[in-house]
Amino acid sequence: MLRIFVFFLLNALCVAQSSTPTAQDLLKQGQKLNSEGKQDEALALYRQALEMSSNLYEAYLDSGIALDLKGNYTEARQQLAKAIEVAPAESKQQALRAMAVSYALEGNAAGAAKFEQQVFDARMFAHDFIGAAEIANELARIFLESGDAAGAYKWYKSGYETSQQKSDLTVADKNLWLFRWESAQARVAVRSGKTRNDEAQQHIAAAKAALDKANNPDQARFLPYLSGYVAFYAGDYKTAIAELQKADQHDPLILALLAESYEKTGDSSQAAEYYRKVLTLNTHNPTNAFARPLARKKLAGGS
Questions:
Q1: How far apart are CA 30 and CA 150, in angstroms?
Q2: What is the domain count for the chain?
Q3: What pLDDT is stored for residue 193 in this prediction?
Q4: At 77, which CATH number?
Q5: In this structure, is residue 65 part of a structural domain?
Q6: Per-residue model confidence as pLDDT tens digits over 220-256
Q7: Final residue belonging to a domain, choices 87, 114, 137
Q8: DSSP code string of the chain
């Protein structure tokens, strides 16, 4: 009888131990909840994970992301600063970019630049010219959507020139980067004033020509976004709607531009619908950094 009792006791202990979630289990559950827009529930799990492992990089990173999505930017940066501090070498750039997004959420391009610059410099040091160019473009977009067209131009130009430092770029890749550079110039031009719309249209034509030479059909999906973006800032809201509806409907910035376009045409119902769609996307990246705060403000009755 004693042996049987001991057997069942040990078996029960094993079952109990196997059903106890690990810190990684809690992180995965939290990430799923965060993606569903349940930031408070996710944060509770991240706190539990940190109680189990006080220097768990992912828990600090994910906590910062969830807090940013809630709009608690100061708290988010405290968590992201800790993530940067404890990040393993291979994750340091991820943490720095997340901090940059946190600043972008408040339209603080200068604050974001301090962290993006570190990533750019690290990639340049490693001679990862394409990776560095991508960061330059990422920072340029933050400057552009923050309303700093000059800062955006500087970093987009840096991105293009950096990409060309890769010695073995194929002709197709050269044209792909030319497409990105012309697209950037079109957006910068129209953001610099409606009087520069003709210049923006010239860059759109050049971007299309470069894309044709790049022979990269996957990039064609960015053309309606480009045309719609330029049309919106040129004040042609009907064209903006027509073009943006053909663009990626999972991109929060595109949805926000659609919402603003409908708002400009007097269709407040459709505008609200698109603003609500923005808030269903729980990504932590530069596009959502500008779409999400706008949508939250508009739906709360802000101008």
A1: 40
A2: 2
A3: 84
A4: 1.25.40.10
A5: yes
A6: 999 999 999 999 999 999 999 999 999 999 999 999 9
A7: 87
A8: -HHHHHHHHHHHHHHHHHHSPPHHHHHHHHHHHHHTT-HHHHHHHHHHHHHH-TT-HHHHHHHHHHHHHHT-HHHHHHHHHHHHHH--GGGHHHHHHHHHHHHHTTT-HHHHHHHHHHHHHHHHHTT-HHHHHHHHHHHHHHHHHTT-HHHHHHHHHHHHHHHTT-TT--HHHHHHHHHHHHHHHHHHHHHT-GGGHHHHHHHHHHHHHHHHHHT-GGGGGHHHHHHHHHHHHTT-HHHHHHHHTTS-TT-HHHHHHHHHHHHHTT-HHHHHHHHHHHTT----SHHHHHHHHHHHHHHTT--
Instruction: For residues 112-119, give the mean pLDDT.
Output: 98
Residues 69 and 256 sit within 8 Å (Cβ to Cβ): no
Please indicate, yes or no, if residue 28 is contained in any of the structural domains.
yes
* Summary mean pLDDT of the chain: 93
| Domain span including residue 55 | 10-87
Q: Is residue 212 part of a domain?
A: no
Of 87, 109, 135, which residue is a domain's last?
Answer: 87
Q: 283 falls in which pLDDT band (50, 70, 90)?
A: very high
Write the pLDDT tens digit of every residue in 75-105: 999 999 999 999 999 999 999 999 999 999 9
| Nearest residue to 61 via CA among 73, 44, 48, 78 | 78
The answer to the question of residue 76 being in a domain is yes
